[in-house]
Structure to design on (196 residues):
């Protein structure tokens, strides 16, 4: 498996396979990430296209990275914020849709899955109501993207201590409403499953 660092350096050097690899491996993730900020699919697609255009145009001057996902999410966030400001729209982080999941099996399992999905959505909805958009965003980076605090600080343009405090406050808010077991199950819902 080729490392992110190698692919990124090949992209910076103008290798066409690297651009294709980056685009096709991350475009769906980027679109889903954009949906957390807005419902305007066209503006999200335009922002992704603009971001890739900017990356291609300035690739020889780009810095190194060993985490392409982080680099792209940070770049897209900046582009989305800029595009929203151009349209005089506020920046909000609403991850409800991305955290909903479904699966299809037999009639009985569909019913069980639907009950489970409704229960999860109720729990998630309750959690999201007590958290601010900034708290939702920081928990997304910490527990879904599994970014380190240094990366979170860079993407959100906040200080290290502030990032840690915000995560602690968000968890404290959750603890005021949920039991320890409910919080654990909530984070399990948000944690990406490793492919076997």
């Amino acid at each position: 498996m080729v490392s992110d660092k190698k692919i990124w350096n090949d992209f910076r050097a103008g290798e066409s396979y690297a651009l294709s690899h980056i685009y096709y491996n991350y475009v769906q993730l980027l679109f889903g990430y954009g949906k957390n900020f807005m419902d305007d699919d066209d503006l999200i697609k335009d922002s992704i296209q603009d971001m890739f255009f900017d990356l291609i145009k300035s690739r020889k001057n780009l810095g190194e990275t060993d985490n392409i996902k982080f680099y792209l999410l940070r770049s897209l966030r900046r582009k989305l914020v800029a595009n929203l400001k151009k349209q005089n729209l506020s920046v909000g982080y609403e991850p409800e849709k991305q955290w909903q999941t479904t699966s299809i099996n037999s009639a009985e399992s569909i019913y069980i899955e639907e009950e489970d999905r409704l229960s999860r959505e109720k729990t998630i909805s309750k959690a999201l109501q007590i958290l601010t958009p900034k708290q939702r965003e920081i928990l997304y980076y910490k527990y879904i993207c599994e970014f380190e605090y240094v990366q979170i600080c860079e993407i959100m343009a906040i200080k290290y201590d502030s990032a840690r405090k915000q995560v602690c406050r968000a968890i404290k808010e959750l603890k005021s409403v949920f039991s320890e077991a409910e919080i654990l199950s909530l984070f399990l819902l948000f944690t990406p499953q490793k492919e076997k």
